[in-house]
Fold this sequence. Notes:
The chain is mainly α. The protein contains six helices and three strands; from the N terminus they run H-H-E-E-E-H-H-H-H.
Amino acid sequence: MPAGNNKKAVKEEPQRTKATRKPLVFNIQREFLNSVLIFLLRFLILAAPSYFLFKAGIDFTRAQEIIASQTAWLLNLLGVHATTNSYLIMTKGVWFEIVEACTAWRDAIGLIALVVAVPGVAFSKRLWSLLGLPVIYVVNILRLATTIAIGNYYPSLLVLAHDVLWKFFSAVFIVIIWAAWLKWAPEGSNKKKTKTTRA
């Protein structure tokens, strides 16, 4: 009888070890899902100002004029004759309007929201993300110039370039900047210094 009991005990041992692993995996998965949900919630809250600014009717005229002027300058540099009138750009007798969405302020808010939504990051590391804002600005000028150039030389592709390709690329580009910041920006420190005592 004792020998039989020992065999049962040996057989039951692996079952106990399997049972103890399940709660650990479940806890890891639950913590991961919680962190993802918190990140998404914070991102949505932080990105909300873009909606309210749009509804508030903020005047972006000056920003539109500056971007129109810089876009026309780039077009002329590329050999496409362009003139401006306020926030309108004319090439080959066709007027292109630089609207408030063309100022890329939504992309900037989106990047900031992604950065701030990441929990447990030192403030000094978050500051490095500001380097992404001028990059967004320059890429936006390139986007506008190439879109207008396509509209001049290939009018049938204008809608595809503006409404599909560049909008998709802009969203992906923001995520790439955010991922690059998350991986390569110097780490700060949120930890308080603790005193150590010698024995």
